[in-house]
Amino acid sequence: QLQLVESGGGLVQAGGSQRLSCAASGMIFSFYAMAWFRQALGKEREFVGGMLWSGSGARIADSQKGRFTIFRDNAKNTVYLQMNSLKAEDTAVYYCATRVGTFTTWPGDYEYWGPGTRVTVSP
Fold first, then answer.
1. Does 116 have pLDDT greater than 90?
2. What is the 3-state secondary structure (H, E, C) of 53-82?
3. What is the pLDDT of residue 77?
4. How many Cα atoms within 13 Å fall on the side-chain side of residue 68?
5. Cβ contacts of 22 within 8 Å, gap of 6 or more
6. Share of the chain above pLDDT 90, in %
7. Which residues contact 59 (CB under 8 A, 6 or more apart)?
8. Do residues 12 and 121 lie in contact, with contact meaning Cβ atoms separated by under 8 Å?
9. CA–CA distance, 52 with 41 (Å, rounded to integer)
10. Closest to 105 measured CA to CA, from 21, 6, 28, 35
């Protein structure tokens, strides 16, 4: 059974940085796609960034380019979301997700989800 667990959320001041982790356990293959999504209160879940578990094909949503990066630790089944220059509007629950298939930015395409980690950015 494939499982994902996010960590690294918390309270951070605007302008600060936060690194989120997504650890996968179970059977996962390098060609699986993974993505980070976030959902702010009262808003729809939106794509933040993603890549293949192989570490290739990293992509960040246009609205986060220049501030967020995504990368993988090859020694672990863990993908990171590095968030810099955080703004109050980045406050959300952040989720990682995985799908057996090509990379997409639509959350409905993803079969496996972590429980989420909350990031709160104070003004």
1. yes
2. CCCCCCEECHHHCCCEEEEEECCCCEEEEE
3. 86
4. 24
5. 4, 5, 6, 34, 36, 78, 79, 80, 81, 96, 114
6. 78
7. 49, 50, 51, 70, 103
8. yes
9. 28
10. 35
pLDDT in tens, 50-93: 999 888 899 999 999 999 999 998 778 899 999 999 999 999 99
Q: Which of 111, 122, 116, 123 is nearest to 48 (CA)?
A: 116
Integer Cα distance of 24 and 85 in angstroms: 27
CA dist 123 and 120 (Å) reads: 10
3 state SS for the chain: CCEEEEECCEEEECCCCEEEEEEEECCCCCCCEEEEEEECCCCCCEEEEEEECCCCCCEECHHHCCCEEEEEECCCCEEEEEECCCCHHHCEEEEEEEECCCCCCCHHHCCEECCCEEEEEEC
Which residues share a beta bridge with 121?
12
Both tokens of residue 90?
A: 């980045």
Do residues 10 and 119 make contact, with C-beta atoms less than 8 angstroms apart? yes
Two structure tokens written together for 75: 């020694």
